[in-house]
Write a structure and sequence with these properties.
alpha/beta; 10-stranded mixed beta sheet; 3-stranded mixed beta sheet; 10 helices; globular
Length: about 280
């Protein structure tokens, strides 16, 4: 353990998928406010770059949309001489946004796939937070294109804010982004985003709900109704009770899980369902 480091004090560096900047900023702000001697230096970058940072000695933790494969786990374990820890933190919805002036706000998954392939009757181009290395690009390639290369109908922005800005200025574009960027109506920044764009509804994943269109909200994630979801994982390189373990525990237990909940992600570790109750005199 580095000198004077504990689970609530010291300084660590972490790399985080840029898609989750709003919620991780909130997590770090609360954690550091509760532990004034703790300092978490975060770098937001494309997911592939975060995963490469697992080989950088100074990076203690990465937060991305997948865990480690068996091969990656074995390779990293051999290098570190101990097994890194990783686990799910929350579930995210990939939201679709459109320009405020357009009337199309209801899409089926076939619509979204055909727009991504450039074969749609819709005249939209699809805007992503890059064309390589990002978790949203990987989601589109894996889940929408089924391994096929990106089409010429897909346009790259520099980052997620660039997606919002471009769609707000172009009626012929739809954007894909993590719901934590635009789902929290209590966040003044996100309210300003929602004045620029609209969140589209996607046809329910449930076969019994054909023709029903749903929002990218927690209830629809939990009930497997919203069709575009992805997990959020932490991967930790620390085999002692240091600040990395302290922050990981914060994320997976009640306080951190509530922050994910308030950011419109579905907590993976704790349930916050409302349950009916009766009070008898």
């Amino acid at each position: 353990m580095p000198p004077q480091e504990t689970t609530t004090s010291g300084t660590i560096r972490i790399s985080v998928d840029e898609s989750f900047k709003p919620v991780i900023d909130s997590q770090i702000k609360v954690f550091e406010s509760q532990h004034p001697d703790a300092h978490i230096i975060v770098n937001y970058k494309p997911e592939a770059d975060c995963l490469r940072d697992l080989n950088v000695d100074s990076i203690r933790m990465v937060i991305v949309t997948r865990g480690l494969s068996e091969t990656e786990l074995s390779t990293l374990t051999n290098k570190l001489q101990y097994k890194p820890a990783f686990g799910a933190l929350a579930w995210d919805a990939v939201a679709v946004i459109v320009n405020n002036k357009v009337k199309d706000t209801l899409f089926s998954m076939q619509d979204i796939r055909s727009i991504a392939k450039g074969t749609s009757g819709y005249k939209y181009k699809m805007l992503l937070d890059g064309k390589t290395a990002t978790s949203t690009v990987r989601f589109v390639v894996d889940s929408l294109l089924k391994g096929q290369p990106l089409s010429s109908n897909i346009v790259a922005a520099q980052n997620t804010e660039g997606v919002i800005d471009y769609v707000s200025k172009n009626e012929d574009a739809i954007g894909l982004l993590g719901v934590s960027w635009i789902g929290n109506k209590d966040d003044t920044t996100q309210l300003s985003f929602l004045k620029k764009v609209k969140i589209a509804q996607i046809e329910s994943k449930q076969k019994t709900e054909s023709g029903i269109y749903v929002d990218p909200v927690q209830y629809n994630i939990a009930k497997d109704r919203y069709p575009m979801i992805r997990p959020l994982y932490y991967i930790l390189k620390e085999n002692y009770d240091g600040l990395g373990n302290g922050f990981a525990n914060f994320l997976i237990y009640e306080k951190g899980q509530k922050i994910f909940y308030r950011a419109y992600l579905l907590p993976a570790r704790m349930g916050f369902d409302r349950r009916p109750m009766q009070i008898s005199n």
